[in-house]
Amino acid sequence: MLHLRVIAPEDLRDDVLRVLQRHVGVAHLVIHPGAALDPEGDEIAADVARESANDVVKQLKDLDVQHRGAITLTALDTVLSTRAHRAEDEAEGDPADALVWDELITRTREESTLSVTFMTFLTLACLLAAIGAVTDSMVTVVGAMVLGPEFGPLAALSVALVQRRGDLARRATIALLIGFPVAMGITALLTLAGRAVGWLSFDTIGDIHDVDFIFQVGPVSFVVALLAGAAGMLSLMSSKSAALVGVFISVTTVPAAGFTAVAGILGHWDVAAQSAAQLAVNLVGVVLAGVLVLVLRPRGNVIPRSAQT
């Protein structure tokens, strides 16, 4: 379940209570009149079944609560309550299939911000991928795939396309369009340094076998990107972090970006072009899969029984 906390001005108190009281998926309704100081108003709390969250939040937004007060949602790991269990049973749909849009939008917005941390992780991941490629080390490449933060902006872009959120789309696009070139540029500079001191040469990547999947782009690459993108979006919707790690290992974005820079600096322009194509195929595949999952998701959880009567 989710814990809902509402701060609302006194004149909206009755309206907010009516919204919460008429939903079968709401339990443990509590009100503290005049408890909120900034903004001033009442604090109203309740536990809400995930299946009912979208409809509850939408009706609260229709009251303009988000502008005149506040709406917060917190996931509850353990709830020992017969009333809460009954609310979940009576709400339409299954909690595992319930998509709470505001929760997903907030999560993807946070993970798609172009920040120093994002840039650092992406650069380190590209460098690790480059090292793994030139040393033909699968372990190092997999480590780079896990480290890469690029799935956040890709998921945010999928959500933005489905929800038509221009602000979220701009945030995600900026992170990708600035993040990858900067990370690849730094990787290229360090590759030049390695070549200058004799650590790297044209023959360095001439005989690699274990990580040649990085630049072997084809239909299978697109299929893998689609499957990984679908799994990643499902993991975000259901908060399955373990599944998300598996997605990172499946997508050849960071390795392709790092190897594009290395191959180009060392003069393997055909390999660099193939790696760049691999990067593009994976980026498009992940975003497309995310959009399809959101569009084709189960919709039985949107309309609670209370809205049907």
TrEMBL record:
Origin: domain of life: Bacteria
Residues that span the membrane, as ranges: 114-135, 141-162, 174-193, 213-236, 243-269, 275-296
Keywords: Membrane, Transmembrane, Transmembrane helix
Stored InterPro entries: DUF389
Coiled coil: none
Name of this protein: DUF389 domain-containing protein
Organism of derivation: Mycolicibacterium vanbaalenii (strain DSM 7251 / JCM 13017 / BCRC 16820 / KCTC 9966 / NRRL B-24157 / PYR-1) (Mycobacterium vanbaalenii)
